[in-house]
C-alpha cells in the first residue's frame, strides 16, 4: 500500500474588490504630463512645442 504525500497548501486567491475604480487615483493623475507647465515662460513653452512637435506638423 502506497501513501500519497500530503498536498502542498495553495496560496489563497485574491479577493474580488467591487469598489468604484474611478474613485481611485491613477498614475496619470500624479505623473507630469503634456498640459502641465513648469515655469509659465511663453518662450520656454514655444521651444518645448517646437522640440516635441511630430515631423508631420512642420
Task: Explain this structure.
The structure is a single chain. By secondary structure, the chain is mainly alpha-helical. It is 26% helix and 0% strand. It has two helices and no strands. It has helices at 27-30, 42-52. The longest helix is centred in the last third of the chain and has 11 residues, at 42-52. It is elongated, with a radius of gyration of 27 Å. The model has no long low-confidence stretch (mean pLDDT 76).
Strand share of the residues?
under 5%
Overall geometry: elongated
> What percentage of residues falls in helices of 4 or more residues?
25-40%
Round the mean pLDDT to the nearest integer and report it: 76
Q: How many strands, which pairing sense, and closed or not: the largest β-sheet?
A: none
Run of helices and strands: HH
Rg on CA atoms, Å = 27 Å
Count of strand segments: 0
Number of helices: 2
Cα distance spanning the termini? 82 Å
* Class computed from helices, strands and strand pairing: mainly alpha
Low-pLDDT sequence parts:
none
Amino acid at each position: 500500500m502506497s501513501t500519497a504525500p500530503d498536498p502542498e497548501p495553495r496560496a489563497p486567491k485574491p479577493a474580488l474588490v467591487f469598489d468604484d475604480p474611478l474613485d481611485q487615483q491613477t498614475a496619470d493623475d500624479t505623473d507630469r504630463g503634456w498640459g502641465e507647465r513648469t515655469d509659465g515662460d511663453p518662450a520656454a513653452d514655444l521651444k518645448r512645442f517646437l522640440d516635441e512637435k511630430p515631423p508631420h506638423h512642420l
